[in-house]
């Protein structure tokens, strides 16, 4: 089979051509077991040094990544088919949806590389193969394999010639019914859905690309795993594993804290030219021995061993943007951890247990670690910390994300405020009021729990307001000096969060015009959000668990907003709160009036205008200007000044004009100057709401007249809704045409001229160019984009 694959045998091509045209009809209704034998997982993994493995790496794997992984990665991959690794391809598909918001009981977890370690184990968990697992012959491999049949189906039935696909024949909604046919169901699938070959709803791949994949499949789909790290990198892994596995109680507790905050990140070493990414995991085995991973739903669940070891395992999946959270490790970072956690004097007398009511509450489980050390650790890399809320354990989540506004700024309380005895004592005393939903694990009854959490949050806020009224009596210290300035150099001090309906992006810097709302986060707030949405969230949890998590986040959002409002005059606080929560239900209104808004000390800022919020945001921009990242600023663009003016005009559209645009539009502009690379931009649509406290009826809270657009330099977000590709010389015309976009028909005419639609013959060449530019510009941060939200307009 290897020779067939390597030599592109004419005989194989002839056989495949015959089967391509007649196979479906000839074998329809036949019993595959009788024709090709009983199925069983095949050994497909070869040493990387073999020629056939090298061909997989150089020719096949890039095709799968750039044509398949762009839709098949993470939990939201159709049919749970994750094609981002050799092991995932061999694992296959599953008809059950991970995102099932109505389930009464938590589902069994199916996390790649965690919940099963072999293809045979995945078969026991209900996954069906997409590769042939019967007789290994070219005929069987192409006729008894779902992946081969899907490719053949697409070649036989390419996309219709229509510019916009007929909605009655295509469903691009994320919650669409998924067919997920097994090989035994492929005949019926081909008859009922002849146009639904792969890639679904996108142009067929080029003939030579299809030939490469079919030849590989005919040869039995030989693959190889990722190359092991170099000896130099392995030495760094040993150094960090030694650091994280000290024997003292203090070392063990610090390592547990670091692990529970970094487990979702992709760790890499800054000195490497080409980064190799790792995950930090819990293991039953110590360093210098093979990792024996402890697989639990949450990072703080009982490991059921006497001693936990923290180990590095190499990331074996293709890096995709929607889950990629790079975190740099270096000698400087290790020194910083030592400075924060080991240089201060304190004692750890005992290790906390893993009982849910303790382990799910970091204010209790890590009470022996200095609050200041914990807080500084989290804000040192604040973008990564908050990115975990967005990318961590989920790939999408409307229920979780409709709890935040579409664009807002985030600031942090200066950590010096957390380094006083009264603050440490306060958190210790309030630990019982800061319990989180994860203590109930993954099956929760929402109503009773929400009432309980509402009462405890009220008790906490009353105590917090009492402390704040004492600390900031008569406005003392209640100025912009309260806001962390990044120690004069850390650009994590200012962040902008964009919500894109059911996904979101966290970016450094204060992006766009002044937002409607802003957050100021302190230690307890950022810590609780992490344990609510990252460490404690279970995407496989039942309806109650997911609902209570979302409802609890209401409290935390309002607390962050309240911290910001405290810097405004008292009357302005009430006015802004009323604007932010127009039409809020009676229970929420009582909660806001009774608990959130009890802080009554005057601000220490001397306001000079009749628009204090605008003035405050200007003051913060000035204070933090030195450390505020300008990565997404339009001034970074290498285009002519008149082109910049046209670009600036694009984001001036507001209201219903803005509503016509998708959440994210990725734009590639070809500069007039020949020696300048193509320039990348993102047009973000920000949706306005009367309030974001409604659980299930978000549409009724929409304020379409308040929608607006934000244009940034570079790519922002992972899920493009539309692509534009134009020459720099076309920018003035584009700006003029945008002024006339008032209806859906107007918008489609605009796309006719500038868009690369999902039906475009140039779609895949444009996709390759876009991903290549992204990787070229940001080799550490970039990952493959996801096309599951591309619109059909």
TrEMBL record:
Swiss-Prot/TrEMBL keywords: Isomerase
Keyword Isomerase appears in the UniProt entry: yes
Top-rank taxon, per record: Bacteria
GO molecular-function term, one example from the UniProt record: isomerase activity
Keyword Isomerase applies: yes
PROSITE patterns: PROKAR_LIPOPROTEIN (PS51257)
Name of the protein described by the UniProt record: 9-hexadecenoic acid cis-trans isomerase
Organism: Photobacterium chitinilyticum
Lineage of the species this protein comes from: Bacteria, Pseudomonadati, Pseudomonadota, Gammaproteobacteria, Vibrionales
